[in-house]
Amino acid sequence: MEAWLSLLGGLVLLVVGGELLVRGAVKAAERMGISPLVIGLTLVGFGTSMPELVTSVQAGLNGSPGIAFGNIVGSNIANMLLIAGASALICPIVVARSALRRDAAVMLAATVAFALLAALVPMGRILGAGLIALLVGYIWYVIQQEKAAADGGALHDKSLALAEADPGIAPPHAGQGLIVPLLTALAGLALVVAGGSFLVNGAVALARGFGISETVIGLTIVAVGTSMPELVTSVIAALKRQGDVAFGNVVGSNIYNLLGIGGTTALIAPSNVPEEIARFDAPLMVAVSLLLLLFAATGLRIARREGAVLIAGYCAYIWMLWP
């Protein structure tokens, strides 16, 4: 019971803290005159991925690579099968051709690269720094393109999905200073860090108590729990008939997870990716990426029937993993 309470309490703290962190950081950045485009692609993008980031880093520091990397791979699989599938069931997802050409292609390339690296080399600090540098370069490239063309994109859709789901993320009042937004962001960060610690400790205790591997816990319970912001924002986008935003949110989240969270985890807590993840789950993540892009490329939409296939695939995946 104590393990479950720690796990659930950690998830609540992560979700609440992540929202406060994003809200405070966005308003502080706006008060300092930072471009809304830059805010959306950096602060909002990283903020909604903060539960995955903190959980994976803390798990790595605690010597639990199964939870650290299982969270990354499991979150991406959940994003594509569970979240994209649920969104398509609610409202067929319309896919912009530009999103397929640029963002989905980057997601697929990052997925293949991560799977190969996981199987071939340890996730060390140099590799982690390289992954982060790739993400920074990609964000810079997207900012330059969107300034010129204003055509949106996956990273923009990721921030837009959160803004649609949380009206509190809006420009501050003219008379508001920096103190309140900064305190809000710091409080959110403290909650996220505490939540990550509770979640990791609860997950480890749960795995030991039930005789289940930490890797399975990381790929399932932890991964779905830390993906709750993406699930909520994508479902709300689908309910508002903004299926293109739901697709961009999934693609953008996967890019952040692989390059940003994978890179940061390797940089701070280098370790080997567990063999079972490298041998099965990471290649499956590549296959699921190809399936999602195949559905998206056929008619530039993901229909309800295809959404049902994605959800069925996730159910089958959980059935295969869970003892």
Automatic annotation (TrEMBL):
Which GO terms label this protein's molecular function in UniProt?
calcium channel activity; calcium, potassium:sodium antiporter activity
Keywords recorded for this protein, A-Z: Membrane, Transmembrane, Transmembrane helix
Sodium/calcium exchanger membrane region domain residues are 3-143, 182-321
Q: What compartments host this protein?
A: Membrane
Please, one GO biological process term?
Answer: intracellular calcium ion homeostasis
Is the keyword GTP-binding assigned to this protein? no
Q: Name one Pfam family in it.
A: Na_Ca_ex
Record-linked InterPro entries:
K/Na/Ca-exchanger, NaCa_Exmemb, NCX_ion-bd_dom_sf
Q: Is Transmembrane helix one of the keywords? A: yes
Membrane topology per the entry is: Multi-pass membrane protein
Q: Where the protein is mainly located, per its record?
A: membrane
GO CC, one annotated term: plasma membrane
Q: Which residues cross the membrane?
A: 77-96, 103-120, 126-143, 178-204, 216-239, 246-270, 282-300, 307-322
Question: Could you tell me which PANTHER family the record lists for this protein?
Answer: INNER MEMBRANE PROTEIN YRBG, SODIUM/POTASSIUM/CALCIUM EXCHANGER
Q: What is this protein called?
A: Sodium:calcium antiporter
